Amino acid sequence: MIRQTSPARPATTRGDQGTSTIEFAFAASVVFMFIFGILYFGYALWLQNALDFSVAAAARCASLNGSACSGQVATYAADQSGANIAASVFSYNRTAACGCQVTAAYSVPLSIPWANLTVSLSSQACLAPPPPGNNCAS
Question: What is the pTM assigned to this prediction?
């Protein structure tokens, strides 16, 4: 005679229903925050790269006294950034000790769920005007 044995695992009770949904809610919130954090961190790095490039391009243009940036170095830098960065973020100093200096300071709000942070990005480039005795763009 074969006797049936009870399963090794006890039968679940009614109180256990829905626990996987609750566990998913806890785990998903952490996973989504991590994923959004990675995305916004990448966005901030891309903006830093755009600031670096545009500041260097504007300083180069000003040192060569190019017609493209004459009188509007900050606007030229904003156009070169490739991002939606206003010209008011950039500042230009033609009388700096190192030559034609362009700086930028930009705050990026990181809208990560449950963690609103702001990252301050900055960049600076300074190029001496080429000889003989050229001045920086005005």
Answer: 0.75
